[in-house]
Each structure stands twice: as C-alpha cells, then as structure tokens.
Design brief:
The structure holds 2 protein chains of 2 kinds. By secondary structure, chain A is an all-alpha fold. Chain A is about 70% helix and about 0% strand. In chain B, strand 2 (about 170-180) and strand 3 (about 180-190) form a beta hairpin. Classes of the chains: A mainly alpha, B alpha+beta.
Chain lengths: ~200, ~260
C-alpha cells in the first residue's frame, strides 16, 4: 500500500484501504484498526469516562466505518478526519443518552506523552500537528471547544450556562474552529517547506 | 435553508452540537451545495484535530480481535451477503447488463446521436433482462453470447455486482467498457424501491463523478445507459447508487470481467 507500512497513507492508499474494508477483508480491517484504533479508543475514554464504554465505542466506530465505507472520499478529506467524525458523533449520541452527573471533567491540553510503541508514524504526525494547533488557541477558546466537543453541549446549553447570548457562543465556536484550521494549514505549509528544503 | 443560514450552523455541525432536526436540514442543504460542503469539510477537519489531540491511551490487546470480529460478523453471510455473492443470480444479473452494454457498443456506432443511442441501449437492456431472467438454459446461451461479444470489443470490460447496505433491499449490476481511443460506455441496471436514484463512480485516485440518474422502466426496474462517458472508466474502482436523500442504496467494486 505504501513503502513504509507505518508511515502516512496517500489519499489513494486510504481509498484503496476503505475499498478492502468495504469488501469485508479481515486484513484491511486489522490495518484500519492498527492505524486508527488507539485514537478512537482514546477519544472514547476521554469522552465516556470508562474503558468499557471506550471499547464499545471503538467497536461501533469500526462497524460504522464498514457500513458507511462507500461514502468515504479521499479527495474530500483524510481518513483520520472521517473516522474521528464518526467516533465523535457516536460518542456524543451516547453522552446525550446517558447525560448525568458522572460525566468526566475534561481538559484539552495534557502534557505530551512519550510516543507509544503501537503508535503509527503517520498518525503521530497528524496528532503532533493537531496538538500544536490546539496549543495556539486561547484558554477561553479551548474551554469553549472542550465543552462542545468533549461534553456534547449544544451552543444553546453553553449560552445558558455562561449566561451569554446564543449568537455570541455560535460566533466564538466558529471563530475558534476557523483559527484551528488556519493554524493546522500554516503548520502543514511550514512542514512541507522544510521537507522541500532538505531534499 | 439559505447558504447564509447553513454557514451559520456549520461550526456546530462540525462539533455534533446541532439538534437532530436542524442537523438533518443542514445535511439536506449540503448534499446540493458544493460551496457550503467545502466549508463544512474544513470545519470538520478542524474539529477532528481536537479528537486527534487527545493523549493516546493504550487499548487492551483484545480490542483488536473484538473489532475485526464485529466487522466480520456484520459483513458475513448474515450481514451483507449480496455484496460478496458470486452465485448464479449475481452472474445472471451481470451477464444481462454486460450483454446490453456490449450490444450497445458494438451495434450502435459512435456517430449516432446520443439520445437515439440511449433509447436503443435502454430498450436492448430491458429486452435482455427479460430474456435472462427466464431459465438456466438462457443463462448458458447468454454466456456464449457474451464471450463472443467481449472478444469483439476494442477495450477493457469491467463489471460490478451492486448490493445494498445492511437493512436495505435491492440488487443491481454495472458494466463499464473502457476504450483507449473513444469515450467509455456505462450500463447500470438495478431493482430498487420506487424512488429517484443517481449513480456515482469512484476512481482509484479517490476522485468521484456523477454518472447520471437511474431511469425507471416499465419492467419496474431501473437502468442507466451512457455511451459517451468522457472519463477514463478503467480507473473506476467503485460504483455507488444514491437515493434522493443522499443515502447509499447500492454499491459494488468494479473488477475486470472474467467469464464465469
């Protein structure tokens, strides 16, 4: 699929992998899990607060990926984005069904752990890029995004909790996401330029 | 919903923070609006970065087998059996559609007007469908007919069995004939619940393009015949039929035709 089996997949390789998953090929499902299982599981752990729920979520995510595989289009976005969107959507559904006082208190930035031996090289690059982009947001932006993303709050719920106008919350959510996208794009350009200079 | 209304909601969509009814309205708009869709994809990518930024925790080793086992259980015989079927009925379907495509390519000629060729190909498809549904003997005759026609085609023939997602009904087949010096030919046949459908082709480099709408026939099935497809059909890896709501109705992988 690529010369480095642990390195980043090209869009073409991602599309091919999903075709194989769609065809029910076990090796392809294993490859998909090996690459994206850890971040999906970690997101489940962070959002749902227990290893059991995170495992259930991971299983649901990969079954959903198989079911919806025909919709994945690598020309529109990365496979990691697509899978994390599925994972987040399913986790938010669970949160909303199980809303209660036991939800974990969540933060966006932790200290960067040492890379784990199971970590895929390609995913490390994406994760590092994401973490650096997140680090450039203000604390207020991160707090706002964490409640919407990790706790599944709607803009209206945030507005009511913070006693600020709904329109303000919507604008701030949008602005924070646009900044995040810009920071990631800037970092991608810098990385590409650095790569070009060394070759 | 206007583009302005939708763009106001895209950040919340990316964060899965929209009420379900509003989310459904936004999705409907995005299906038909490439500009808003692009904006939505960018914001969703930013939201995914939040999830990817979570420090990694090591999942238990058993989870890998649990996940592969769950997918296998769904994609196995009781799950999506039609997609993987290589049985007689699937061969008959492919045979019928393949014959229709070959007959169209060989007998019509590129100089004819497209509307006339479409009509003719469609009627030939329908006739062949009726013939092929009847008996095993017909199937054998058809296989011979296909073999002789394939030998005459200046190009590569690909076929795809089309199967529905779990929980939905329907079946179909697609034939793609890629020719190096002429536009390609595409014939899709399907039986589906009465609704509007369109066909999308996905290429090996991840690009996709709309092939056209399925046309309902008096035989209560659907056909799409295109004799002047400008794209290189040899690069197509998947054929996907969508319903009017943008949901996958049928899909299948295009493979080089091999005589059964």
């Amino acid at each position: 699929m690529t010369s480095n089996p642990r390195g980043p997949l090209s869009p073409q390789a991602e599309q091919e992998l999903m075709h194989q998953v769609l065809a029910g090929e076990r090796d392809a499902v294993r490859t998909l899990y090996a690459r994206f299982g850890p971040p999906v599981y970690s997101l489940g752990l962070r959002m749902l607060g227990s290893a059991e729920s995170a495992e259930e979520l991971a299983q649901d995510v990969f079954v959903a990926a198989w079911r919806q595989g025909a919709r994945f289009d690598s020309s529109r976005g990365r496979l990691s984005t697509w899978l994390m969107a599925i994972a987040h959507n399913l986790a938010v559904d669970r949160l909303r069904h199980e809303r209660g006082p036991s939800r974990p208190v969540l933060i966006l930035q932790d200290e960067l752990p040492e890379p784990d031996p199971f970590d895929e090289e390609g995913l490390l690059v994406e994760r590092e890029s994401a973490r650096r982009a997140l680090a450039r947001l203000t604390d207020a932006d991160r707090w706002l995004l964490s409640r919407a993303y990790f706790q599944g709050w709607t803009a209206r719920e945030i507005a009511e909790a913070d006693r600020i106008p709904l329109g303000t919350v919507k604008t701030r959510l949008r602005t924070a996401l646009v900044k995040l996208r810009r920071f990631e794009a800037e970092r991608a350009r810098v990385t590409a330029r650095a790569g070009g200079e060394t070759t | 919903m206007s583009c302005l209304d939708v763009r106001d909601l895209l950040a919340e969509r990316a964060l899965d923070a929209l009420p379900p009814a509003t989310a459904a309205e936004v999705e409907r708009h995005l299906e038909g609006c490439p500009g808003c869709r692009k904006e939505a994809e960018g914001l969703r990518e930013a939201a995914a970065a939040i999830g990817l930024g979570v420090p990694l925790s090591l999942p238990p080793a058993r989870l890998a087998e649990r996940v592969t086992g769950a997918v296998a259980a769904h994609s196995g015989p009781s799950g999506r059996e039609p997609r993987r079927s290589t049985g007689r009925s699937a061969r008959v379907l492919v045979g019928a559609v393949l014959t229709a495509a070959l007959v169209a390519v060989l007998s019509v000629g590129w100089a004819m007007s497209q509307s006339a060729t479409l009509q003719r190909a469609m009627s030939q498809t329908v006739t062949l469908q009726q013939r092929v549904r009847s008996t095993e003997a017909t199937n054998k005759q058809l296989a011979n007919q296909i073999a002789s026609l394939v030998a005459e085609v200046q190009g590569t023939v690909f076929v795809a069995n089309l199967a529905p997602p779990v929980g939905r009904q329907g079946v179909g087949a697609a034939v793609l004939i890629a020719q190096s010096s002429a536009p390609g030919t595409l014939v899709v046949w399907a039986t589906l619940r009465r609704e509007a459908y369109h066909v999308m082709l996905v290429t090996s480099n991840g690009r996709s393009f709309q092939a056209g709408d399925l046309v309902w026939t008096p035989n209560d099935d659907y056909v799409l015949s295109r004799l002047q497809v400008p794209q290189n059909l040899a690069k197509v890896v998947s054929v996907v039929v969508f319903d009017a709501k943008g949901r996958v109705a049928l899909s299948g992988t295009a493979r080089p035709y091999a005589q059964p």
